[in-house]
Input
Amino acid sequence: MNLEKKRERLTLLLRIDGELDMHTASDLRQAIDSEIEKRGIRTVILNLQDVQFVDSSGLGVILGRYKKLLPLGGKLKITNVPPHIYKIMELSGLPKIISFYVDEAHAYEEGRGA
Amino acid sequence: MKSNQITLTFSSIAENVSIARLLIASIGGQLDLSLNDIEELKVAVSEAVSNAIIHGYQSVPNNIVYLDLEIADDTLIIVVKDEGCGISNVEQAMQPAYSTDPERMGLGFVFMQSFMDELQVESKLEVGTTVTMKKRFKQTPISSH
Output
């Protein structure tokens, strides 16, 4: 799994490339948690365009970061989800909890200046 | 009639979960399953193998996970076995959202159940757990031309 990071003030954009399973999930968790704790990141945008696989371990880390950001007044946003990944997410109920956007621009747009 | 059998044994480390998925994806390809079916098989195998490593062996490496694939007639049978700690209450473990770990969603068995035609879990404390999953596929019909 490869992570491309972009920071803009308190917003972190992560473009994830690869498979999200129990092996890679812990790397993703550490990457996001250290940004929240050390840099005060409060909005995390995950671009899943290049994610080829996700299972409950991957979904668990995403939900876990949402739960971590919530009491901090933060937000987790997901963009560019490939259809086969969305199907798995839908079955887990994740889209009922977390906001999904078609692309990064829409994710940045929502909540800006508010 | 198709018939085939493959057994893979591997160390209980996270890196091996993707190897188990590769194997099931190759078999799915041979059976002319749709890409969607293959995706679902990959998730089901990933969940069963992850459970064996995380729960069966409590993430301790140097244990062995057994993945057994069998094709008999129109059924693909996947058996994932560990010789780990076992599950004290299988019925409870299979409930949606049940998890012993707050970082996990408790969806492993839900995915296995949703994506497979049959799911059977046998477990004995301190002996291990065997998950048997079955998926039926359409056989290529014999040409009637």
